[in-house]
Each structure stands twice: as structure tokens, then as C-alpha cells.
Amino acid sequence: MSLDTDLKQDDTSGPGVESAAPRGGLRGRFKSLRVVQAPLDAPTWLRWSVFALVIVVAVAIPLNSPTYVNFDLSMVMIYAIVGMGLNLLTGFNGQISLGHSAFFATGAYIAAVLIKDGWQYLLVLPVALVVCFILGYLFGLPALRLRGLQLALVTLALAIITPALIKRLDGITKGQEGINIFLKDPPVWTGLATDQWVYLICLVAVVIAWIVTRRISTGRVGRSLIAIRDNELVSQTLGVRSSRTKTAIFALSAAYAGLAGVLYTYVVQFVGPDSFGIALAIAFISIVVVGGLGTVSGAIFGAFFIQYVPTWTASIGDSAAGFVYGFALVLFMFVMPFGIAGLVRAVLRPLVRRIPGRRSDLTQSAKTG
Amino acid sequence: MQLFLQQLMDGIATGALYGAMALSIVLVYRASGIVNFAQGEMAMFAAFIAWQAYAWGVPLWLAIVIAMIIAFIGGALAERLLIRPFGTEKSGHLPLIIVTLGLMLMLNSGAAWIWGYLTKEVPPVYGSGGLSIAGASISRQGLGIILTVAVGAGLLFFLFQRTKLGLTMRAAASNPESARLSGVPVGRMLLFGWGLAAAVGALVGALVAPQLFLQPNMMASLLLYAFAAATLGGFDSPVGALVGGLVVGVSENLAGTYIPFIGNEFKQAVALVIIMAVLLLKPEGLFGAKTVTRV
Questions:
Q1: What is the tens place of the pLDDT at every residue in A177-205?
Q2: Which of A150, B38, B157, B267 is most buried, judging by how many CB atoms fall within 10 Å of its CB?
Q3: Given this model, what pLDDT does residue A6 score?
Q4: Contact across the interface for B97 and A149, Cβ inside 8 Å
Q5: Total domains, chain A
Q6: In terms of Cα–Cα distance, which of B147, B228, B155 is closest to A158?
Q7: Tell me, what CATH number does A272's domain have?
Q8: Is residue A224 included in any domain, yes or no?
Q9: Where is the composition biased (Basic and acidic residues) (chain A) (predicted)?
Q10: Considering only alpha carbons, which residue of chain A is nearest residue B260?
């Protein structure tokens, strides 16, 4: 019953579900996944304790896990960073980019080349952030004029030529051969092994990315991103400078991808052109789609998905992972277009509603009358 | 001069293929208003079917016809099962882009699953060997490709401009709502458009397989050139697609020969540059109609 009233409220912006207030039962629950799920309105104390709990667990894991677990989880965090940036662009702003593998590759190669040159590896991070932001800005400038399909086309082209470009620039990138790097051992006072140290660097990065993404998406900028997504002309009329916002968010998401690329180099300690092809670009899209378009937490679910699916499917065959990604993209669009985050919200909502102290308890009466 | 002529000739032969592939993209775009990112992989899959039939002893030309028929059915099914359910939604292109990307991945990995990544030898349809025209030599296959594409384009032109079916299809594509009110079975026309596009793609796949060597990733670069061709010609113009294909094929070949930085390896960049330039300077393409946004 509470689910029904819930849906009526959320229905206003749900694409394609006009007056479908489901009847409840299994079918109703199933249908509710196709509706935009508003963020869970958990009380502040609950949010902070969940956040703190996750951090404590995340810090504890590497201290007593085997190397391969740390490696996998570091990759999850890297993908989560890409996913958050891409979700700002695609989920919140409605611009689709199939070319973020190019910015990821840029970050990875900047790290590899500079570390090879003898740079301190942490100094590489700001360089890659700035370079990818600028590249993203320059590439995003056309985003002022391109929309929907055209942007997808251009960015797909970018993803396809990235490996060829890396091979062409073989003077810097060593072409097909790739670059091996070795990270210096972590500072002695930490007493950590390299994989644990790198894991913690990734954790710090993902927490910062999380906070920044949340600040952006729930704030003023986030509202204007959504306004541009939902109706650009109207948002312009209301005073949103849409072209500037679109370019800036494209550049920012490119910087996220660049940052993730640097971390990738730390973790894998090898870069080669064939890791950054179209398959990676579509995997990035899978993060956003499977995790949940327009949610911040979705990137983390999606990152787990693309990191662990290949492991699970390896026993079936080499190409099974690609097949599962493709199938998941289609399936999620059909069954739950708002991804795992949407599912989690739909499942947890009835529980959260019972917790006192939520913000909407105070404002709800004014909003819905 | 002879080098230039040779490159020009090669450019036209590959350009004809880009144009034909672009044509299949344009057919889908006109029918459904979306770019089917899986178009290249559909062609690749069809080429595998043709190869499989050939390997089982079916004559080559018959194998290609069979592959085209299967592709037609597959394309129509894809429209009905994957695309139509999103058709009436106003939520924009995003779900459809993602669905066609998913289809692309599934076909790509599916082909790898069934046939593996090892390249398959496909004999050229028009035999090996070549002939020489004005000092430049052209392979029989190259010449055959140009002729096949020309004949195919002619047939399609005839279909669209001179038959009742073509007229109905154009009506359904240009204004589905009023076409439906006038009694045009719009849904069936969409099915037919997708099927036709897939069949054209299958033909391209079979023709290109001898050069690119048949393997699951064969279409990625071809698709890129086809996108460039369709963008250049205008996404709603079949004639534009063919002209665009020729321009892209020739300019790619010439750039590869005369611009040292690009060379043979990096010709794909030409496609990206063309796409970017056209979208920035003349987004509707050379032959496309300007669209106006109204609220």
C-alpha cells in the first residue's frame, strides 16, 4: 500500500510510465523498477553511520586479504571513479559519451610515461587531472553544438581510434609493446605492502570523488544539469547557461576518467594500447547503466559488476563476459532502466519510511498538500 | 600520377563499400530515427553465416543470398523485439543507443563464441586477379564490388521512387503519425526498413570479408568509415550515403598515401576528422535536410 502512494509521487518524471500506478503484488513491484526512484530520504545520522561503516570496512579489508583481492577491489574503485564522472555526464546531464576510454588511456599513459621518467608517482595525479580536464574541455566544446546521437557518434569514433592513436605515437607510448613501470615501495612507517598501499590510495581517491560528486549532483549545479537533460530549451529560458554547463561537465567527467587512468597504472603497472579499445568504452557505459543512471551510488554497483562478471564467466568462455555485458545492457534497459541503485531504493524505501527523523517528515506536508 | 590514379581507384573500391554500409545505416535512420550502432556487427555476423554455408559446400553466391535472407529476418526481429518497445517513449535517444550497443556487444561476443577469433579465409566473390585501366590496376573483386554496389543502389532507388511499397515506406518514415492515419501500416514498414538495412549490411560483410579477413572484430573500422560517410552525406539521404562513402574512401586513401603522419596505420583518424568537421560546419550533411527544433 505504501508502495502505491510512493509511485504516484514519483511518477511525474518517469519516462514511459504514464498512469501506471501498479496494483501491488509481484507484477506491481516488477513494474516499479521502470519508474524513476527518488533518492531514499534517510535521516542524516543514518547516512553518516552507513558512510562511516563502509569506510571502516574498506580500510580493514586490505590489511588481511590476499593480494588478488586487493587488486580486484582497487580495480572496482577505479571503475567507480570513472562511473561517477560518466554518470554526472550521462545520468544527470543526458549527454552520452562512448569515448571516455580515451581519457582513461590519457591518464594511464601520462602516469606511465612520467613515472618512467623518474617523477614521484603521486605528483602525476594533478598533471593528469589538469591535462584530461583541458582535453575534455576542447573535445567537449563541440558538445555545445552536438546532441544525443551525434555526440554518441563522435565519442564512439574517438573510442575506436584510441588504440590506433596510441600505436601511432609510438615515440612516446612505445606503441604495441606498451610500458612497464615499477612503483617505489610504500613509506616504511606505514608497514604496508605495495598492493595494500595502492589500495588505500584508490580508497582516498574514490572517497574524494564520492564527496565531490555528491556535492555537485545534489547542489545548484546538479539541478541545472538535470534541467538541461530534461528540457534544454526551457532550462535556457530559465537562465541556465546550458552550453557552458555542458562543456564544463564534459571536461570534469574527462578529468575523473583521467584520474582513474592514473590509478589504473598504479595498480596494473603496465599500459598497452589494446587495453583501451572500444570494449573498455562500452564497459564504462555498462557501469552507468547497470549501476543506475542519475545516481551517485550506482557507479559503485556498476563497478563491481564489470570487475567481477569476467571472473564469473571465465569458466564458460573467453567471450562470455562481452556477451553478458551486452545482454545486461539490453536487459537493464527493458527491466530496470534505473539500474541496481533503483532496485535498492525500491526495496529499501518501505523500511526507510519507518525511520523517524527524516527530512521530508518536516517538509512533506508543504510539498504534497 | 600513376600512384595517384592507383590510390584513387582503390579509394573508389573501398569507398563503394563504405557507401553501401552507410546506406544501411541511413535506411535504419530514416525508418526509426536512430543510429543502429550494431549495424556493423550484424553485417559481420551475416558474413559468418555466409562463410559457414560456404564451408558446408553451398556455392558462394547462394551462401551470400542465404546470409542476406537470414540477415533480413534478423534485422526485422531486432526492430520488433528490441527497438519497437521503446518507440513511443519521449525519453530521447539514450535507451535506444544503449540497446543497440548491447546488441553490438552480444553479436560480437556471440560470433567469437561460435566461430572463435581465428580469421577465416573467404574467397573473393568475383575471383582473384585484376585488370589494368589507364595504367592503374584494379582487382576483379574491386571492380565487382563497385558494380554490385551500383546495381544494388539502383535497385533500392527503383524500390523507393517507383514502387508502391517504396512510397509507403517513405511515407511511414517521413511522418509516421499522419501516415498511420492514412492507412499506412507503419509498423510493418519499420520492420521492412530494418530488414532491408540488415540485408544490405550482409552483402557488404560478404564482399569485404576477403580483404579484412573474417573475424569478429572486422567491422569496427569499417563501421567508423561508414559513420563518417553517413555523416558527410546526411543521415537521411541514401544518395548522400553513397557519395559520402566514395568521398571518405578516396580521401582516406589519399591521406594515407600523401600525409606522412597518417600513413597506412592511422587512416582511421581521417574518419574522426571528417565526422567532427561535418558536424561542426554543416551538421545536416551535404545532402541532408535541415531540421528545426520547435517546442
A1: 888 888 877 777 877 888 888 899 999 99
A2: B38
A3: 36
A4: yes
A5: 1
A6: B228
A7: 1.10.3470
A8: yes
A9: 1-11
A10: A168
